[in-house]
Design a protein that fits this description.
The complex is a heterodimer of chains A (318) and B (259). By secondary structure, chain A is an alpha/beta fold. Helices cover 29% and strands 25% of the residues of chain A. Chain A has two domains: 174 residues, 3-Layer(aba) Sandwich (Rossmann fold); 123 residues, 3-Layer(aba) Sandwich (Rossmann fold). Chain A contains eight helices and 16 strands. In chain A, the strands form two sheets. A nine-stranded mixed β-sheet of chain A has the order 7-6-5-8-4-1-2-3-9, with helices on both faces. A five-stranded parallel β-sheet of chain A has the order 13-12-14-15-16. In chain A, helix 5 runs parallel beside helix 8. Chain A is elongated. In chain A, 53% of the residues are buried. Chain B is of the alpha/beta class. Chain B contains six helices and 13 strands. The chains are: A alpha/beta (318), B alpha/beta (259). At the A-B interface, helix 3, helix 4, strand 5, strand 6 and strand 7 of A face helix 3, helix 4, strand 7, strand 9 and strand 12 of B. Strand 11 of chain A pairs antiparallel with strand 9 of chain B.
Chain lengths: 318, 259
């Protein structure tokens, strides 16, 4: 129980690097050294870790070539029993969400998931109520503490020259232990809208209430010359196609202007747009989490504000 | 197929939240509660699986844990078409961690030996997104998470799993199994008047948390709830809709330079 183990995810260099940065914050508070592990080869370490790490474990097994929760739980269970870390830090990805709660349960532990901060204690901060509140968690029990780190919450680890020695770790896994058969990933519908390259985006959320009200926001987008986007509930309802969805399950955007209309700003949405240069939010709730990242805000009824804004933009462009 | 859907009652999405005097949770006394959104999709998936199985039939059982107010959410699920319910009475839900809550649910599920257990992907209050996956481990069953579509096959199930940034994946798994359901896979149904009437006659099995023998001390503790800190200082544009709109146009023109 004398180290921090950070788990890097292949193909997810940025968030893996942020998990490493979080582990380093934790190291600063606890005085414990950081080691790292990944399923895969040395390249994963090179991509994610700017800084040399004392111990690096490359978990290798033919049965881990395709991700399965059963395979990953078995592999990490064996590595954790071998290394006996006090903390294990994961990037919060769709993959870690799928297997880490199960892995933690195997140790009688609970994953403190998608943390956005680490404070003295250590105390782990994460969002509650879709971002309307934050919660501070502690891990008073004995045994390893499992953490996963939300995207964008920690600045990626800075690059530095140095030597990382990589040790191969081969877990014992038999084919019969893997109960699921994963298929190859595929894209949904043909992507015809590239929100990623849009300079101006008007995005609409639940506040619009009904599909019949969408033209209101479409008019604003047209007046501005912006692409129309949406938060997940709008696409879930089928009011706009999935390809217009911004957020962790949709597209990540970084336009010059992101104008959020009736979007409360749950973290799943914020991770997809908070890199925008200027964020404007129109929302009736002054406490909506979207205002935490907005540069300009209008607190009011979108059904009054949006038509007024459309007219004002038309007038300014005329 | 016998399907158990674990559902959670959460504060209504539009509710104004206030931190309670202990600073450890929110004031619940005057709150409106509702069925957690992704749990509603899990229930919908279960009902559709039963309907598709036709003559083979099956059973959809909803399961929840919490104080007396959860009865309202159970009735809503029964009105939508669940066949019966299991309600675990528990007034100290907040002092249990995700594993503690899952242990209660698992103990109740074991008494039913279902073919399939569904949960929503995550709750709108705590948002941990773990209950289903922990349940799978406690029940020693295979699982798949973030599922949008479920199809019964000869060998078990083929499910469509959501990956990040518009990617998907199909996974085959044997039964019994646990799935966590992502929102948006189906269109949610409303309870009909007939459904609401029938719900009153359906069985609700009452269990007490104390009887389920799952009272381990929590390993993680929520010590404090707070309002989030702003990452940016937002400039709020005041006035009427028209005044605010005019002020924003000025900003877009001269500060942001997009007009």
């Amino acid at each position: 129980m004398s180290k921090i183990l950070v788990v890097l995810e292949a193909g997810r260099a940025r968030i893996s690097s942020e998990a490493l940065a979080a582990a380093q914050v934790l190291a600063g508070l606890t005085g414990l050294p950081v080691e790292s592990a990944t399923v895969g080869n040395a390249q994963v370490f090179a991509e994610a870790s700017g800084q040399p790490i004392a111990g690096a474990y490359a978990i290798q097994h033919p049965l881990l070539e395709k991700y399965t929760s059963d395979g990953y739980v078995l592999a990490f269970e064996q590595l954790i029993r071998k290394l006996d870390p006090a903390y294990i830090v994961f990037p919060h990805t769709y993959q870690s969400r799928d297997y880490v709660p199960r892995l933690a349960t195997r140790f009688g532990q609970v994953l403190v998931s998608d943390i956005t901060g680490i404070e003295a204690g250590p105390t782990f901060v994460r969002q509650l109520f879709q971002g309307k509140m934050t919660g501070a968690y502690s891990h008073p029990g004995s045994g390893p503490c499992f953490l996963s780190v939300q995207a964008g919450a920690f600045r990626a680890a800075e690059g530095q020259a140095g030597q990382t020695t990589i040790e191969a770790f081969t877990p014992e896994i038999t084919p019969a232990q893997i109960r699921t058969r994963p298929g190859e990933p595929f894209r949904g519908s043909a992507q015809t809208v590239d929100l990623g390259s849009a300079q101006l985006i008007v995005s609409v959320g639940r506040g619009i209430k009904e599909a019949d009200n969408l033209p209101l926001v479409q008019d604003l987008a047209t007046a501005l010359g912006a692409e129309l986007a949406a938060s997940r509930p709008i696409c879930d309802n089928g009011w706009l196609p999935m390809e217009r969805q911004v957020g962790s399950s949709g597209q990540t955007v970084a336009p010059k202007l992101y104008l959020a209309v009736g979007i409360s700003g749950a973290i799943q949405h914020l991770v997809g747009m908070k890199g925008s240069q200027c964020i404007v939010a129109i929302n009736k709730d002054p406490d909506a989490p979207i205002f935490e990242v907005a540069d300009y805000g209008i607190v009011g009824d979108l059904f009054e504000v949006v038509p007024a804004l459309t007219e004002a933009i038309k007038a300014a462009k005329a | 197929m016998k399907i158990i859907v674990a559902i959670k009652q959460v504060p209504d999405r539009d509710a104004q939240l206030r931190i309670d005097s202990s600073s450890k949770w929110i004031e619940e006394s005057d709150l409106q509660f509702a069925l957690n959104e992704s749990d509603a999709y899990a229930l919908e998936e279960a009902l559709q699986l039963k309907e598709k199985s036709g003559a083979a039939g099956g059973e959809v059982i909803v399961l929840t844990v919490g104080p007396e107010r959860t009865g309202q959410t159970i009735r809503e699920a029964l009105a939508k078409g669940a066949d019966r319910a299991i309600s675990i009475a528990c007034d100290d839900l907040g002092s249990r961690d995700a594993l503690g809550v899952a242990r209660l649910l698992a103990a109740a599920i074991k008494t039913e030996s279902p073919d399939l257990v569904l949960t929503g992907l995550q709750s709108e209050d705590l948002g941990l997104g773990q209950t289903g996956v922990i349940l799978a481990e406690l029940l020693d069953l295979p699982h798949a998470s973030l599922i949008l579509h479920v199809e019964k096959t000869e060998a078990g199930l083929t499910v469509k799993r959501e990956l990040e940034e518009g990617w998907f994946q199909e996974i085959q798994l044997p039964l019994p199994a646990v799935l966590t359901i992502q929102s948006g896979g189906n269109k949610l149904r409303y309870a009909t008047l007939m459904g609401i009437k029938r719900a009153k006659l359906k069985e609700v099995r009452q269990l007490a948390a104390a009887d389920l023998g799952a009272n381990a001390a929590p390993v993680v503790v929520l010590d404090r709830v707070a309002l989030p800190q702003k990452q940016k200082s937002t400039q709020i544009l005041p006035g009427t809709a028209k005044q605010a709109a005019a002020a924003l146009v000025e900003k877009l023109k001269f500060e942001v330079r997009v007009l």
